[in-house]
Design brief:
Elements: H1 3-19, H2 24-34, H3 40-55, H4 57-63, H5 71-81, H6 114-117, H7 133-138, E1 145-149, H8 156-165, E2 169-172, E3 179-184, H9 193-196, E4 200-202, H10 205-211, E5 221-224, H11 231-239, E6 245-249, H12 259-266, E7 271-273, E8 285-291, H13 304-309, H14 312-330, E9 333-343, H15 352-361, E10 365-367, E11 372-374, E12 384-391
Parallel strand pairs: 5-6, 5-8, 6-7, 8-9
Antiparallel strand pairs: 1-3, 1-4, 2-3, 9-12, 10-12, 11-12
The chain binds S-adenosylmethionine (SAM).
GO molecular function: RNA binding; RNA methyltransferase activity
Binding site for S-adenosyl-L-methionine: 250, 291
Keywords: Methyltransferase, RNA-binding, S-adenosyl-L-methionine, Transferase
Length: 395
Amino acid sequence: MTPGARVAAAITVIDLWLSGSDGLDRVLTAWGRANRFAGSGDRHAIADLVYDAVRRLRSACWVAGADAPGARAALIGSLRLDGEDPSAFFTGEGHAPAPPDPSEGPRELSDATEAIRLDLPDWLMEHLANASREALSALRVRAPLDLRVNALRSDVARARQLLAEEGIETVPGPLAPSCLRVTAGARKVARSRAYAEGLVEIQDAASQAAALASPPQPGETVLDFCAGGGGKTLALGAAMQGRGRLIAHDISALRLRDLAPRAERAGLTVECLGPCETASLAGVCDLVFVDAPCSGSGAWRRNPDAKWRLTPQRLGELVATQDTVLDAASQAVRPGARLVYATCSILSDENGDRVRAFLDRNPAFRLEGDPISLMPGPDAGDGFFAAVMSRAIRD
Ligand SMILES: C[S@@+](CC[C@H](N)C(=O)[O-])C[C@H]1O[C@@H](n2cnc3c(N)ncnc32)[C@H](O)[C@@H]1O
């Protein structure tokens, strides 16, 4: 495909996403299936164009002269924000889109409101008043790929060497000793031997750090209450050196489906419990980890469509779920043991506010130290929050 045809395809994908309710990933996958002529290089290039434009949807549309989100404006503006001349792609020749007309900018980004410049919905600005502008700007930029070296299978030096032999270059990553940041060959990771044999997992640096907010010890009974795909479960299991009882629970049995084979690859045994199967764990766990469902605002550079779909009503629903989940999970904590509440959110509504509300409802628990509050950044990881609480020996 020509560069212009790739831009045209990216416009089609964003159009479909804007007019439907599916996530961007699904729309992209469906487009790829319906357009088999596009090779993997084309599909990757189109995905990059799409994600770059959606991450910066408001600012891109602004510099393309549009006051409302639109796919064509998003692409024109996104190219401009990257210092490219859109006319080089919008040629009208072959499958390329028609050339930009004078109503399509350029317009100075410095004339836009702060919410537009930061690519955030207007209503969210007051919720983010305490977040630094650098952290919010980081959400407009493509995220790096981080790996967690699985100590049960390898050490960091050996994992780096094996990855390098397959053309995947890494440097030591931030926030966690097991973190490697991929600097070249990111697209080869999922097909690499190191990945297939469980030496490394794909996991953001901040997620790795959050999993170790209260490091589990070998021999402990550890419950990952919102285990989902199991990223934290595997990190917890590695910290336990594979010894003890590791239990994964989620309200969605479907989301736990891939955990058993992932755990086996990582050299771990995990008990998987479906919804409402935790009654037998009441008061027995040494550590209960709650990676609560949240807005995902700390990871919006990876999932930029989520930020445009979040509404005040949805945030309210999430907050109510977080309270319910934390109350339910706390039942499994043994007297004297730990409860960790974590989110990949940067909104205090979902973080400190939830912990304070929980402690007010549950006087048997108290906060241990200051919560970890990680903000997204080029040399950091995603935004993440983790608070460690402990249950009194006697209620
Ligand atoms: C942030 S995701 C977990 C990600 C996962 N821990 C990881 O590291 O890959 C939140 C999870 O909470 C689950 N969830 C939502 N409501 C729940 C509930 N009431 N009880 C338990 N899990 C719930 C969701 O199905 C989802 O898998």
